[in-house]
């Protein structure tokens, strides 16, 4: 199922590619008056909110497996399930009852409770295949050949609903990058992203004096991001993007996190605090609360900091300027492969059950 977010679509495609089974893509185009999420939305099985064109794409032959992501897709996947015996696998959080899904592949920031059909991954799936990384590295390596090693990739993000990238933070990041390059006697491979503010880009351009290659993101220009993942010896990543951080972490090389300035709304902070208190221990309140999440009546507040705390706790990353980014001694956790194995196991279990019944 392809939705309106490119990053989500890439995750679903990465899982489909990893399985190696024949697959087809269906684009979900919604009518303009798509309702906001309510506890009732994910309990229905229909195509009512799709445009007529998108609705017409769903017809036999029916699939054996449906891969989806995002809460808007839930009524569509449940409708397909009502037409056939397809297995439903959802990435992230459905904001709906968990029981209708054969698998929910989730990550720490969504705070979903344990359930027989929930698989907790350490981070999002990546579409960066080894072949893609190797090809990009070969294409960009000639432009980087004159830079002294070792190389540290600096992956720069930008503002989000809960984080902002002020000019002061850009000054701090530039100074930290200069110190890091001097200590390692190497060069920096710097890449901005679609969210990077122009003023931040300009500050980094002017203030970073270490040997470096600086790429400013543009939608119509080739991007060395994949090449940097393949070629860099270390990484410095801003904490606004879990996907960008995860892809650097999966290399198994030293990873340094640069924190942006929090602009958390008091309501969001209070909700996360309340969520932690409600699920604590094995009280009746905790059991009822977690059951309401499993049944789709409530969903816990998203907490990206949970992902970063897990990275730091497991020793897979360190805050920039602090010790702890160990690199080679840290096990690489290929979450895409873990997701593929979980889906394959689902079908193996189903086949074994059917064979036993026969």
Please describe the topology of this protein.
Layout: H1 6-19, H2 52-55, E1 65-69, H3 74-83, E2 87-91, E3 103-106, E4 118-120, H4 130-144, E5 151-155, E6 163-164, H5 167-184, E7 187-191, H6 198-207, E8 212-215, H7 225-231, E9 234-238, H8 242-249, E10 255-258, E11 261-262, H9 266-278, H10 284-294, H11 304-313, E12 318-319, H12 335-357
Parallel strand pairs: 1-2, 2-3, 3-4, 5-7, 5-9, 7-8, 9-10, 10-12
Antiparallel strand pairs: 6-11
Name the features.
four-stranded parallel sheet, six-stranded parallel sheet, Rossmann fold, globular, 12 helices, 358 residues
CATH homologous superfamily assignment of the largest domain: Glycogen Phosphorylase B
CATH level 3 topology of the largest domain: Rossmann fold
Structure classification: alpha/beta
Tell me the number of structural domains. 3
Cα shape: globular
Strand order across the biggest sheet?
8-7-5-9-10-12
User: H/E series, N to C?
Assistant: HHEHEEEHEEHEHEHEHEEHHHEH
Q: Termini distance?
A: 33 Å
Q: Nearest-angstrom radius of gyration?
A: 22 Å
Strand content: 5-15%
